Amino acid sequence: MKSFALGIILFLYSTAAHSQSGKEIVRSIYFGGGSWSISREQLVDLQKVVDGIKNLEFYEISVTSHTDNIGGKEFNEYLSHMRSQTVIDELVKMKVPQETIRYKDFDFTEPFFDNSNYEGRARNRRVDVIFTPITF
Q1: pLDDT tens digit string along 62-88?
Q2: Contact predicate 83/65, CB 8 Å
Q3: Tens digit of pLDDT for each residue in 29-70?
Q4: What's this model's pTM, rounded to 2 decimal places?
Q5: Three-state DSSP string of the chain
Q6: d(CA 114, CA 119)
Q7: Is the alpha carbon torsion for 36, 30, 90, 101 positive or negative?
Q8: Beta-carbon neighbour count of residue 105 at 10 Å?
Q9: 76 CB contacts (<8 Å, ≥6 apart)?
Q10: Domain coordinates of the chain in residue numbers?
Q11: Does domain 2-133 match CATH 3.40.190.10?
């Protein structure tokens, strides 16, 4: 239950704190430990973002995947890749052109939050989806 409640809090944080900043739009998708499954609520939120962007073909989409530091490097590299691939697959289902999506898997090598506590690890288990307008 604690994990579910923290997931909801992180989802709300993602929706509020990672909304539109200038023209770049960022959405973070959070995962349970060792998981690459995306919650329905987060998929609905991502779909709303995609639907809200006019002229999606004029955006570059970056998918960056992160993990916490639990488990070995090899497992976290695999987990990071599975998370980014799951998000990319969902974006393609949402009619985002795959050729506009770039990805980078960071595993636990570049944590943004403190991996020494539960909350920091939970916030590091994420994929950031960044929609950046292409400038001409």
Answers
A1: 999 999 999 999 999 999 999 999 999
A2: yes
A3: 999 999 999 999 999 999 999 999 988 888 999 999 999 999
A4: 0.81
A5: CHHHHHHHHHHHHHHHHCCEECCEEEEEEECCCCCCCCCHHHHHHHHHHHHHCCCHHHEEEEEEEECCCCCCHHHHHHHHHHHHHHHHHHHHHCCCCHHHEEEEEEECCCCCCCCCCHHHHHHHCEEEEEEEECCC
A6: 8
A7: negative
A8: 21
A9: 67, 68, 69, 107, 108
A10: 2-133
A11: no
Residue found under tokens 């998981």 = 35
CA nearest to 28, candidates 76, 82, 1, 65 = 65
- CA of 125: how far to CAs of 47, 55, 101, in Å? 20, 30, 20
What residues contact residue 25 under an 8 Å CB cut-off, 6+ apart? 19, 49, 53, 130, 131
7 pLDDT band (50/70/90 cuts)?
Answer: low
Q: Which amino acid is at 40?
A: R
Overall size of the chain counted in residues: 136
